[in-house]
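Worked problem 6 (solution included).
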Amino acid sequence: MRKALVLVVAALMAICVTGLLLVFAFFGHIPLGEPKLRIEFDPPPPWQVRAGHTFEVGIGIANDAWLLAAAKDIRVDVSMPEGFISSRTGTNECEIYFGALHGGDGLGNTLSVMISSNVSSGNYTISIRVSGENFPEQINTAQIMVLPL
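Solution. The predicted structure is:
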């Protein structure tokens, strides 16, 4: 009977210690790895659009890290050439705020861009910068082919 009591107490202590470790890790006191962010586009680039038209692209951010390796304060900054106008800002630049993202999770948002009718046909590059509080900045580029009217 004494052995059973010792085993029960040991098991309860192990459960409590594991629970405390998870709580401390969740609130940032114990580092459990770094976030590993990945950006995806739907549809994938290169994109084609006619001058004077609008196109929409889905932007997804995934954190491929372990569950408790949360990315904090995720921002996506989009910079486009002159004549490309974000519906969010009315300019050729915009920021999309994603907030926090735990490992294994993903978030998405939509970017809507109007191409001025003054933009010449040709290939253009959009810069997409992913930044935040606790992970390295990533800079991505995407190509847009503006077709003639």
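Discussion: Residues 2-26 form the longest helix (25 residues).
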